[in-house]
Structure formats: C-alpha cells, structure tokens
Amino acid sequence: MTETLRRMSEEKTTGNQVPFDLIATAYRRKRLLGEVFECSNQSLASVVQQGVEEEQIEKERAKAAAKTRAEAGESKAGCALISA
C-alpha cells in the first residue's frame, strides 16, 4: 500500500486523490486488526466467521467454474460429433 501511495505521489497524474479501492482495503484491514487487538471473543468470532464465509464463496466459485468448463467441453464434443 505504501508503495502504491509513493508511486502515485511521484506521478501526480490524479492530483491529490487516492483510489477508493486502496482506501477501502486499508479501512478493512484497520477494522479487522482493531478487532483482533481487542481480543474479545465476539470480535474474534466475527473474524473467523468472515474467513469461513470467504472460503465458502471461493469453493462455490470453483464449482461454478468447473461446471462451466465441463459444459463447454460437452458442447465442443457434441459439435465434433455433428460435424464428423
């Protein structure tokens, strides 16, 4: 993050504005670290729950991508049979 800010300050192509996604990422990290440093069971549970949810989302994306690849492979095989 500091590398990106340094590069932006050298280029000065966008003026004094920092990209929103960079600010949002920094805010999320700050909030999560704040919760971890508090060491309350509830905040640690929320961090763990967020990690579990992100893992589930990644698994669903992987399944959808595999299904799409399988369907694309079947349609190519079907086209090969028809053209033969």
Q: Mind telling me the C-alpha Rg? A: 22 Å
- The H-and-E topology, N to C, reads as HHH
Number of helical runs? Answer: 3
Estimated structural class: mainly alpha
Compute the number of structural domains: 1
Tell me the fraction of residues in β-strands, as a range.
under 5%
Low-confidence stretches: none
Shape: flat
Written overview of the protein:
The protein is mostly helical and 84 residues long. The chain has one domain (2-83). Helix content is 86%, strand content 0%. The longest helix is centred in the C-terminal third of the chain and has 43 residues, at 41-83. It is flat.
Task: Please give a quick description of this structure.
The chain is an all-alpha fold and 84 residues long. The protein has helices at residues 2-11, 20-38, 41-83. It has 3 helices and no strands.
Descriptors for this entry?
84 residues; mainly alpha; flat
Task: Lay out the secondary structure.
Blueprint: H1 2-11, H2 20-38, H3 41-83
